[in-house]
Design goal:
It is a single chain. By secondary structure, the chain is mostly helical. The chain contains three helices and no strands. The chain has helices at 12-24, 26-40, 45-59. The longest helix is centred in the middle third of the chain and has 15 residues, at 26-40.
């Protein structure tokens, strides 16, 4: 989603620059914090368990029909 900043995973400079920007730009920090909290509402243990159960059922050949 838009709750994070993409960086080149092998670029230490890119990671450091973006971390510095977030830490020094309070408006950006608050915006990212709020977007992250909203995004976290899309995830729950219930959803995780349901998806995992579906995977197990598929692997074990269980059908619901």
């Amino acid at each position: 989603g838009d709750a994070g900043i993409m960086v080149e995973p092998t670029s230490i400079n890119s990671l450091c620059e973006n971390m510095y920007t977030i830490l020094t730009d309070k408006k950006l920090w608050h915006s990212m914090r709020n977007r992250g909290l909203e995004r976290s509402k899309l995830f729950s243990w219930k959803i995780t368990v349901d998806k995992l159960e579906g995977i197990y059922d598929e692997l074990l050949g269980k059908n619901e029909y």
